[in-house]
Structure formats: structure tokens, C-alpha cells
Amino acid sequence: MRQNSDLEHDTANMEGSSNNKKVIVITGSIGTGKSAAVNILKNLGFTVLDSDKIVHEGYNKGTELYKKLVDLFGEDILDESGSVDRQVLGRIVFSDEKKLEALNELVHKYVRLVLEKGVSDCGDEVVFLDIPVILESIARGESFKLKYDEIWLVYVSEKTQRKRLEKRALVEGKNPEDVLKIIDRQIPIDQKVSVADEVIDNEGTLEDLEKNIVKLLTIKGIRW
Predict the structure, then answer these.
(1) Cα 141 to Cα 144: distance, rounded to the nearest angstrom
(2) More confident residue, 110 or 145
(3) What's the CA gap between 55 and 13, in Å, rounded?
(4) What is the domain count for the chain?
């Protein structure tokens, strides 16, 4: 599926895992069903390392990331309990581009190290990395030297994407227009298709998605 592009040029520097395991990044824009695909992979018995979870837990008191955040930004970012106050930190970095870059670099390095350790510690032949906005990070030059073999993209058309997000927003009591603005901050889904190694169609039902994943695993010769 891959075609030439500037984004592809950037991804080339990241590819190729350094061990005998096959490392696959699974990604997808908001509303495409990436989380559903991840759950299917987990139910099939695969290990999926969650980058968002790593960041969330990294902010907990006592972690290596927590210590580095305090060293970099000072104790003013802590609340009365000593936990990182994300609102305070957000106000600091979003008003200072250099501080935002420093935060991104710190978090990306931490995530990369935790992912690498997770891959190393895993005894499976195939390991999946759940990284929702990896292509956006690459486009900004934030590759952080993560090694992997392939990127699998969970795909729906933009029309389907918007329809699903509107429905989700209404169910969650949110303003659909606010939720849809997230799409505008991400790389257009069709542009992502041009640089992904494999595309998993999710235009149908959950059962269709599982069939498409199983089909791709079979084509790749990946056992489960």
C-alpha cells in the first residue's frame, strides 16, 4: 500500500526492529476503531503495548518520568498531594514553545524506553505497539528513534469517521462540533493510507473487522 511521500521518507529511519521479534505498530485516527482492533488482537492472544497507558502511568508519583518532570519544570507543577498537576503543566508548556518541545522530547524518550523494554521482556514472536498518533509525531520530526518492522493502519473513510464521532459525542453528552475538530488536528486518513505498510478496513461490523485482522495475520504468516 505504501507510496512515496515526505512522511514515508521520515518513517524509513525508524524501521527495522533490532531483535528477532516482529514489532508491529497499530495506529488509526480518532473514530476509526483502532481500540476495537487492539481488543481483537488481545483476545487472539497477542501482546499489545499501549503508549497512552505508558504516558498516563508515567505521570504517577515516583516514576522516572515524574522525577524528570520535576527536575525540568520544578515543584510548582505539583499539587498539594505531590502529584503532577497536568493543568498547571499544560499552561506552562503551551505558552512557551521551547518548554513544550522539551516536554515532548522527555515524554517521547520515556515512552520509547518503556516500549523497548516491553518488547525485550516479551517472549512472543510478534509484539504490537499501540501508538495512536505515530504518523503525526513522525510528520513533526518526533520519531524518537523507535524501532519497528511495520505500521498497520485501521481505516474508515472520512465520511464514516465523522458519522461515528458525531454518534459517539451525542451518546457521551458532548458537542459533536467540538469532537469533530480533533480530526482537523490529525493527518487526513487518506494520507495515512499512502504511508502505512498495511491497511485494515473497518467500514463494516465488529465481526467484519475481526475477519479482516485474521485474514491479514494469515497472509503475514503470523500464528496465534
Answers:
(1) 8
(2) 110
(3) 23
(4) 2
SS3 187: coil
Which residue from 135, 148, 190, 183 is spatially nearest to 6, judged by alpha carbons? 135
Q: Is the backbone of residue 161 left (phi > 0), alpha (psi -120 to 50) or beta?
A: alpha
Confidence of residue 2 (pLDDT cuts 50, 70, 90): very low
pTM given for the model: 0.86
Final residue of a structural domain among 123, 146, 169: 123
The predicted structure's pLDDT at residue 206: 97
C-alpha separations of 111 from 79, 135, 151, 159 in Å: 24, 16, 17, 33
Q: Is residue 219 part of a domain?
A: no
The set of long-range contacts for 117-123, using a CB threshold of 8 Å and a minimum separation of 24, is 118/47, 118/49, 119/17, 119/19, 119/21, 119/23, 119/49, 120/19, 122/21, 122/47
- Give every CB contact of residue 188 below 8 A, 6+ residues apart in sequence: 158
State mean pLDDT over 71-77: 95
Q: Both 29 and 87 in a single domain?
A: no
Are 114 and 130 members of one domain?
Answer: no
- Looking at the domain assignment, is residue 18 inside a domain? yes
